[in-house]
Amino acid sequence: MSDGVAMPRDGKGAARGRRAPLSSLWLLAPAAVLFLFVFILPVGEVALWSVQGEAGLSAENYEAALGAGPYRTILFGTLQLSFGVACACILVGYPAAYFLASRPPRNRTLLLLLILTPLWVSVLVRTFGWIVVLGREGLVNSMLIGIGAVDGPLQMLYTRGAVYIAMVQVLLPVAILVMFSTMTTINRSLLMASRILGASPWRGFVHIFLPLSAGGAVNAWMLTFVLALGFFITPALVGGPKETMIANLIATQITLTLDWGLGSALGMVLVIAGFTVVGAIALLFRRATGLSGHGGSR
Amino acid sequence: MKRSLWEKSGRYLLPVYFVGVLLYLLLPLLLVIPMSISETRYLKFPPQGFTFRWYQEFFASAGWIDATLRSLLIAAASAMLATAIGTAAALVLSREGSKAARVAGPVFLGPQVVPVIILALGTLLVFSRFGLYGSLWGVVLVHAVLALPFVTTTVSGALRQTGDTLARAARVLGAKPHEAFWHVTLPTIRPAVISAGVFAFFISFDELVIALFVMGQNETLPMRIWADMRHDLTPVVAAVATLLIVVTFAAVFMSDLIQRRAKRSAG
Questions:
Q1: Complex prediction ipTM
Q2: Inter-chain contact B118–A267, Cβ cutoff 8 Å?
Q3: To 10 degrees, what angle do helices B221-231 and A123-134 make?
Q4: In B, which residues are within 8 Å of A24 by CB distance?
Q5: How far is residue B235's CA from residue A80's CA, in Å, rounded to a whole number?
Q6: Mean pLDDT of A177-189
Q7: CB under 8 Å to A176, separation ≥6 — which residues?
Q8: Separation between Cα atoms, residue B189 and residue A163, nearest integer Å
Q9: Confidence (pLDDT) at A2
């Protein structure tokens, strides 16, 4: 019986044997079935609708979505806003993640929990919070009027700035979490070694910590960018008509104008644009780090 | 060695900055709470007077209560479904070096990357084809798919950490696979399974876009909040938001407590 303990880890031989591993493949089946029918099928349906014309296959929906006009403007606006939001998340989140990662593990847990708790509060509630803060008689306006900085309430809601502030707040915990988990894998004794060899802490940070944590920052950027692309609730509630995002446009197409084909094409464009940008960034980053690695070996 | 400016500023600047980030993340949430007891009909900060009227309005309104109960039912059902099948899948996905894990792992993350609006639209198209429009159980299935990536990553993380040595030992000693799972594997990963379930519950309970597209007249709580925020923005929303914030914070801290206690008793 002792041979059972030394079973190969991949369990290939064991799968056929009497002591099959606890994790046989059929355990994947329920998840796979659900995934197939409730994820692949609907997304496939969107792809199908997007290329359906009056008679058979047609690109007319894509022409309407991408041709000059309001849809293209909204598409570029969405890409631009998401780009900015993702960059802001990285810039704001990096020092916070750095601080978290440099805490001793004992007090790290509570701080991390405080950062992550907003993530589990409904986006509707988080957006409502910004209405309370930025509204005509909200916190900021009351304070500004109270100290006499302005005469009347400032228009802060329904502006691009409000969308930025609220979207970054919604996505920031995600960015911090991704960067933090990369930073905790960095071997701190490398920094110690650089200090011993006479480098200043700043030099150590720039030449050792920053490059090693850059991968996490890029991953965080890509994730927040893709998530921002699909935003629907926040721009609809705190943005003006100019901040309409693709997701809001799709919702209008579906519920008001009932143009399912155009809505589907807009959806596909959103997915394709998202993956293209993320793919390009990943490629650029790989090339950049490849080059720097090459430079380092000289 | 002389301390440089970088080091000194790092000592004070970073903690101050971090507190700033925390305020940015938490303050808008905490400010919602006083708004729920303010007497004014419109949102005014600072709050005026003190009243529980908006809470009473919430609990007295059939519309709000129905929506809440419907959301609770959907969230409970989809959390159970997602946790059960996600845990089963995690048993396979956590097995390092297996082909199935390598292929299926990233694929299951799909719902995290594809914007929900696409899935919502697709769900509408499929549901209207199969006459599932407005169906509670249809939404349960979609919410379960949304939660699946969270469950599989949480549970396979725990499985990788504990390893399967004990389960193998149980098998060697003659336990059947399901016995080894119930008596050996599950107890060791229970905290992860519980927190995965809690998160799956919240993912469904908060979900708006899919419900908006396919639920029709069967309003869920987020749909009701959404409608209120878009049209009248009553203080009842502040009361509901406060309840949601309190419940969410309690659940997250409790789930963390369970995990930490398990870690302590294990170590």
A1: 0.89
A2: yes
A3: 20
A4: 92, 177
A5: 34
A6: 92
A7: A93, A96, A97, A100, A115, A220, B21
A8: 40
A9: 37
pLDDT, tens digit (0-9, with 9 covering 90-100), for A41-85: 999 999 999 998 777 788 888 988 888 888 999 999 999 999 999
- Euclidean distance between CA atoms A158 and B153, whole angstroms: 37
Region for A57 from its dihedrals, namely left if φ exceeds 0, alpha if ψ lies in -120 to 50, beta otherwise: beta
Q: DSSP 3-state assignment of B112?
A: helix
Q: How confident is the model at residue A202 (pLDDT cuts 50, 70, 90)?
A: confident
% of chain A exceeding 70 in pLDDT: 89
Q: Check A121 against B29: CB less than 8 A apart.
A: yes
Q: Count CB atoms within 10 A of the CB of residue B122.
A: 28
- Please say if the pLDDT value at position A295 is more than 70: no
Residues of chain B whose pLDDT is less than 70? 1-10, 266-267
Give residue B37's pLDDT.
92
A124 contacts in B (CB within 8 Å)?
206, 208, 222, 225-226, 229, 241
Residue A166: half-sphere exposure toward Cβ, Cα within 13 Å: 32
Checking if the pLDDT of A244 tops 60, the result is: yes
A273 contact residues in B (CB cutoff 8 A): none
What is the number of other CB atoms lying within 10 angstroms of the CB of residue A276?
Answer: 11
* DSSP letter, residue B40: -
Backbone angles phi, psi at B87, to 5 degrees: -65, -45
> Mean pLDDT score of chain A, rounded to an integer?
86
Tally of residues, chain A: 298
Contact check, Cβ <8 Å, A39/B145? yes
| Interface touch B22/A114, C-beta < 8 Å | yes
Whole-number Å distance between alpha carbons of A223 and A281: 12
Please give the Cα distance from A78 to A70 (Å, whole number): 12
Dihedral sign from CA coordinates of A54, A75, A274, A257? negative
Cα gap A278→B135, rounded to integer Å: 36
A contact residues 255-294, partner B, Cβ 8 Å cutoff = 255, 260, 263-264, 267-268, 270-271, 274
Q: Measure the CA–CA gap between B66 and B223, rounded to whole angstroms.
A: 12
Neighbour tally for A275: CB within 10 Å = 13
Token pair in block for residue B262: 């398990």
Chain B residues lying within 8 Å of A232, measured CB to CB: 116-117, 208-209
Decide if A12 contacts A25 (C-beta within 8 A). no
For residues A139-164, average pLDDT: 91
B191-250 pLDDT, tens digit each? 899 989 999 999 999 999 999 999 989 999 999 999 999 988 889 999 999 999 999 999
Question: Could you tell me the pLDDT band of residue A107, with boundaries at 50, 70 and 90?
Answer: confident
Which of B121, B154, B155 to substitute to test the interface with A, most A CBs within 10 Å? B121
Residue contacts between A and B (CB atoms, under 8 Å): 280
SS3 state of residue A57: strand
CA atoms within 13 A on the CB side of A275: 9
